[in-house]
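Table S2 (text version). Query chain:
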Amino acid sequence: MKRGRRLQNGSGKPATARFAQTFAHHISHPPACQTRRQSSRRPENLSHALLAFTAELTYTQNRNAMSLIAVFADVHNKTQTLARALAVLERRGVTAYWQLGDLGAEPLALLEGLPVSHVFGNWEVSGLPHLPADRRAWVANWPAHLTGPFWIASHATPVYPPGCTTTAATWRYMHEHHPRWLQVFPSLLHDERAIAAALAALAEGDRLVAFHGHTHVQAVQQLGPDGRLRRLDGPVIALTPGTRTLVGVGSIGVPRDGPHPRCVLFDPEARTVELLTLSL
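Corresponding structure-token output:
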């Protein structure tokens, strides 16, 4: 069943009427959870029916309270590929999307109306002056990071130069200081110093995981309590206490690790990351 979907009511009835109707149905039709956990017998009295209904309602409410976040990056104007990927992710019950940069101008319209949070990538920075005027001011204010209690998400790294807080601020930084692009947007797949700095930033912020794009490769590196850095293959990664994990989400538009688009599903309540390869 899909996660994160609210209970739908097409009847227009008030809550008390819906409760009474559903409860009456449960008296004569035991819920599936009772059948699984107890037996196939019908409830023998009203108390049993009430307990069965309450258990099913609690299970449904807890299931629908869950969140499932699709984290993707590096679309690079491949709008049709993104459209097909979004259709797959919707069927998986995704409740929100994090777009980690290098999107391109063309797919912006496709994402309108969806619960999407954006960060900038090097494409947004370099192409900012060339964006359509009606999009430029919005993209100029995209942040460098998305952050939460135990996670951070960015295009290349959780560690940017001071002042590189938005697309526009980073554009100014590049033109005022003239660094190499790889100094600002390093590879967390190949640059050992950048990997060490990212893991140190996680430890300093007491965070478990950093999501990133930029490499166009889906790769997970986890620093264990023993101080060893390991590559994990998944498909499901547990974010356990005492670990620090770098999750390269892969690329939707231009993957470098095979022909298929890749992204990840992040469940912040279960503290898991699922690696997805989308055979579109």
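Notes on Table S2: Residues 46-65 form the longest helix (20 residues). Residues 144 and 190 are 21 Å apart (CA to CA).
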